[in-house]
Amino acid sequence: MNKPDIYLALLHYPVYNKHREVVTTAVTNIDVHDISRSGRTYGLAGVFFVTPIEAQQGLVSELLGHWTEGPGFRANPVRAEAFRRSRIVNTLEEVIETIQDRHDGIPPDLVATSARETEGVTGYEAYRERLRQPDIRPQLLLFGTGWGLVEGVLDRAGTRLMPVQAEKWEGPTEAPYNHLSVRSAVGIVLDRLLGDRATNVGTGSAS
User: Fold this and answer.
1) H or E segment and range at residue 93
2) Which CATH number covers residue 77?
3) Least C-beta-crowded within 10 Å: which of 53, 113, 119, 176?
4) pTM exceeds cut of 0.85
5) What is the pLDDT along the chain (207 residues), one digit of tens a residue?
6) Interior CA angle at 190 toward 18 and 41, to 5°?
7) Is residue 203 part of a domain?
8) In the sheet that 109-112 helps form, which strands lie side by side, from edge to edge?
9) Is residue 206, in this structure, part of any structural domain at all?
């Protein structure tokens, strides 16, 4: 079975802050590093970092250049392999157009993630099975920074994945806390969707 082309976009705009105001967040080097490496590990067709701020675009472009053709490439060509599929762009629309151009005019299906619980979400196993269907269109996984993707972006997505959250154990527990870093959430989601279940799910006991 062939895996469909799956892309990922990390949006720094438009996202919410803690006051539910629409803002632009800063791109962080560690997110670029870790999400690029996760994208390569799980075989994504491309990773996009989305920000309209030119200064931030320049910083990310410099970082990508360092690892793909500069001193970083000469020192660590393995890491360069991960960064080659990453790009910095202005808007979500630019991401969609880029993917569409790569696939003969076929737009990607938008798949949103959110830490907020909403109705109509899709479980990971159900979506994983959908990825196995023949002739599936390219997929674009959307992640938000700050306090999450704005409703306008979520509304455009044909699929919303369930939030990544801890098991609700019986008995006394602490108050709910669901504030993973976005790079951690990306790693968890990619493994749930694209991880090797044959070797990652063990049946033995530790000795």
Assistant:
1) helix 92-102
2) 3.40.1280.10
3) 119
4) yes
5) 578 999 999 999 999 999 999 999 999 999 999 999 999 999 999 999 999 999 999 999 999 999 888 887 788 788 888 899 999 999 999 999 999 999 999 999 999 998 877 778 999 999 999 999 988 999 999 999 999 999 999 999 999 999 888 877 777 667 777 788 999 999 999 999 999 877 655 544 443
6) 120
7) no
8) 86-89, 46-50, 6-11, 139-144, 109-112, 159-160
9) no
